[in-house]
Structures are given as C-alpha cells and as structure tokens.
Amino acid sequence: MIPISVLSGDLIQSSKLTDRQVNDAISALADAAQDVARWAPELRTGFARSSGDGWQFFLSSEGLALRSSLYLRAALRRLGKPFSTRIALASGSDSLPPDGNPNSATGPVFTTSGRLLQTLTGPHIQMAHATGGSAHAATLLADHISQGWTPAQARAMVLMLPPAPPTHATAAAALGISRQAVDQALSAAGYHALADALTAFEHEGTGP
After folding, report:
1. Quick one: DSSP state of residue 79?
2. How many whole angstroms from its chain centre is CA 192?
3. pLDDT (tens digit, 0 to 9) for every residue of the chain, 208 residues total?
4. What is the pTM of this model?
5. Suppose 104 and one of 97, 117, 135, 185 were both cysteines; which one would form an S-S bond, judging by CB atoms 3.0 to 4.6 Å apart?
C-alpha cells in the first residue's frame, strides 16, 4: 500500500462530438498523462480509457492530484472550446495494479474516484475531490476557474502547470506568440493564483 491518487473522468457532452473527435480527446488525455509521468523520477502512473468517452488515471502521489487534473483539462481544452472533461479525484493508501492498467484495479481509492464521478451530474460542478474539506474546496475553486479557459489560455497553461515551468519568455517562444500575449493569457486563466495555491498544498503535503 502506498499513497496514490486516482482521477476518473469522462468527456462532457460527448454526444455532440464525432467519433474522431472523441478519439482525439482521449488521445490528448493519454499524452498528457504521459507528460505527468515525467514530472518526478519515481512517479508511477497509469492511464486507460474506461469506456467510450471515459478514462481513468492513477499516480503514486497525493500532492500532485489537483495539478495533474488541471494539466489534463488544459491539454484537452487546447483542442477547442467543445472539449472538456469531468474529473473526480480521490487520494489515499492503495495498491497499484501490477500491469499498470487502471481498468484492472479494484482498490478503494479507484472505487471511490469512480463512484464520485457518477455524482458529478450537474452543469456547475465538473471537478470534485472525495477527501472533502480543504482539498475539496480547493478543487471546486480550481474547477470554476478552469471551466472558462479558452483554447489559447489552455495552451499557455499546459506549458506553465508542470512543477518546473519555463519562463514566460520561453513559453512565448514555444507558442510562437509575444511574451505580452502569454502574460495576458495566463492572467485571464487565473494562473498566478492557481500556481500559488498548488504550491502551498504540495508543500504542506496534505493537499490535493
């Protein structure tokens, strides 16, 4: 048993997407999950499609759960405004599936995350944390902020959300836009408040 987090999600309004768009969305989430795996040398992760428009992702960290959730949401939204996902977070001690496939896991954290996702049926709350308390409160606020990201803002957030982000000048060069445009996109996306909140939780060691 080790500390882990599990993110369970599904695409919002996937019935309005073509089959190709759904597949592109799941591929974007899978690629983002691979990016998260490189955030720390000993971080263990696994991503799998769990149904037509559903997915599940685990990581061997409790502190990086919310940062990972926002990263996956940004990676998806940069495809376009119609692309978004619900995300149900759960953290705790559990065993990882030997084959690294979340679909073969049956532990309590996996189950809790999956059950929480089934409760996210309303239009306003699209991301929640099963732990409750401050972790859930921070997740709700991050959800509210990130629901409004434009694709341009999401592209900037994908570059800046990892734990060791580049400078704004480097991000601007990567995106092929001016530093002023990056600054404006990040400010509009709520990056500075989100980054400070994520860092505070992760340093505390008990956050999402």
Report:
1. T
2. 17
3. 999 999 999 999 999 999 999 999 999 999 999 999 999 999 999 999 988 899 999 999 999 999 999 999 999 999 999 999 999 999 999 999 999 999 999 999 999 999 999 999 878 999 999 999 988 999 999 999 999 999 999 999 999 999 999 999 999 999 999 999 999 999 999 999 999 999 987 876 544 4
4. 0.95
5. 97
